[in-house]
Amino acid sequence: MVIVLGVVLLGACGGDQTPEPELSDGAALLEARCVQCHGLSKTTNEQKTQEQWQQTVTRMVEKGAQLNADEQATLVTYLAETYAP
Length: 85
Ligand code: HEC
Hints:
Layout lengths: L1 H12 L12 H8 L6 H5 L5 H14 L5 H14 L3
Helix pairs in contact: 2-5, 4-5
The protein binds heme C.
Heme C binds next to helix 3 and helix 4.
C-alpha cells in the first residue's frame, strides 16, 4: 500500500526522479501492467463500453494492478477505443 501510494504521489508531482516512468501509451500500459496475473488475451478477447472498461480496470487495480490515476484514465480510453462492442 505504501509503495502504491508512493508511485501515485511521484506520478502526481511529475518529478523527473520517478523510478518507473509514467506510461502515456495505452497499448504499452496494457502490455506492461495487465499481464502479471493472466494473459493478454483475457483482456483482448473482451469487448466493453468505456464505462465497463472503467469498472474492470478499477477492479484490477483493487486486485493489485499497478496503475496511477493518469495511467488508469489513459488505459480505459485506449481499451474503450480498441476493444469496443
Ligand atoms: C493482481 C492480479 C491482476 C492484475 C495485475 C490484472 N488482473 Fe485482470 N483479472 C485478475 C483476476 C484474478 C481475474 C479473474 C477474476 C475476476 O474477473 O475478477 C481477472 C480477470 C480479468 C478480466 C475478465 C473479467 C472481466 O471483467 O471482463 C479482464 C478483462 C481483465 N482481468 C483485465 C485486466 C486489465 C485490463 C488489467 C490491467 C489494468 C488487469 N486485468 C490486471 C487479476 C489481475
